[in-house]
Structure formats: structure tokens, C-alpha cells
Amino acid sequence: MLAHPAHWIAQGFGSGLSPIMPGTAGTLFAWLSFAVLSTRWPHVFTAGNWLAIIVAGFIIGIWACHRTGQALNSPDDGSMVWDEIIAFWLVLVLVTPASLKTQFAAFVVFRFFDMVKPPPIAWFDRRFKGGFGVMWDDILAAFYTLLVFAFWRAYW
């Protein structure tokens, strides 16, 4: 992980090195870091600033995941969790303010879509390779999660 800055980023500052469910560990890191940063510095980590961080993080993630995938000889290695981090930050910035229970529900729904990869996520996952492919399928999982929450809020 420390051999190159791209690995440090792609592997979620070490959270992707979890021997058990690294994607879930990366998503938990995203949740914890979002909560800590937003609570500690609310004037800095506003919704608008989070969206700018997410866009920049997505672009950086394309490079970091591509470089790390090449180094590991595994284009979408399980240890690369930056995609989960960026995508779950997107979910959180769009569902908060929300109770801990609602944030947990968002976590579960996001992990479901990220693991199951319903259409068209699986199609994009097969078609797009490299850093963009790694990052994009998780953005789609975030979109599905946000769609579920939009329906939930509209009808319940």
C-alpha cells in the first residue's frame, strides 16, 4: 500500500486491506470519515464542499485505481475501495441530515447494490475496465441507493 500514493488512495488508507469483506470495510471507513469530518468542521464540510470533494475524488480515483490495478495485476482488485468511499460519500451527502438508523439503512442498501450489481450495473462492470470502470459501477450503486430512498421518502 505504501509503495505509491495511488495505492494508499485506492486502498482507502488501509481500509481495503481488511481480510474480511474489504468493500464493506471501505464503506464503513467512508461513513466514519464523513461523520467525523462533517461534525468536527461543519463550516468546511458543507454539502457543496462535499460534492466538490466527491467530484475531485472520482477523478483522482480513476487514476489511483487504474495505477493500483496495474501494480497488483488485478484491474478491479478487492482491496481497492476508493470507489466505495466516493460513492457512499455521495449517498450520505444527499440523504443527510438523517438519523443514525436512516444512515445505517443507506449503508445496507448501498452494500446490497454494490455486491449484487443488478442491471445495468453488471453490464457497465463488464464493459468498462481500468480506473473508470472501477469507479463507475459504484456510482451506479449509489444512484440505485438514492433512488430507493427517493421512493421511500415519497411513499412512506
Automatic annotation (TrEMBL):
Residues 8-150 form the YutG/PgpA domain. It is an enzyme of class 3 (hydrolase). It is found in: Cell inner membrane. GO terms for biological process: phospholipid catabolic process. It is a multi-pass membrane protein. It holds the Pfam family PgpA. Its EC number is 3.1.3.27. Its cofactor is Mg(2+). GO terms for cellular component: plasma membrane. Keywords: Cell inner membrane, Cell membrane, Hydrolase, Lipid degradation, Lipid metabolism, Magnesium, Membrane, Metal-binding, Phospholipid degradation, Phospholipid metabolism, Transmembrane, Transmembrane helix. Pathway: Phospholipid metabolism; phosphatidylglycerol biosynthesis; phosphatidylglycerol from CDP-diacylglycerol: step 2/2. Its main location: membrane. It comes from the Bacteria. InterPro entries: PgpA, PgpA-like_sf, YutG/PgpA. It catalyses: a 1,2-diacyl-sn-glycero-3-phospho-(1'-sn-glycero-3'-phosphate) + H2O = a 1,2-diacyl-sn-glycero-3-phospho-(1'-sn-glycerol) + phosphate. The chain crosses the membrane at residues 20-37, 44-66, 86-113, 134-155. PANTHER family: PHOSPHATIDYLGLYCEROPHOSPHATASE A. Lipid phosphatase which dephosphorylates phosphatidylglycerophosphate (PGP) to phosphatidylglycerol (PG). This is Phosphatidylglycerophosphatase A. The lineage of its organism: Bacteria, Pseudomonadati, Pseudomonadota, Betaproteobacteria, Burkholderiales.
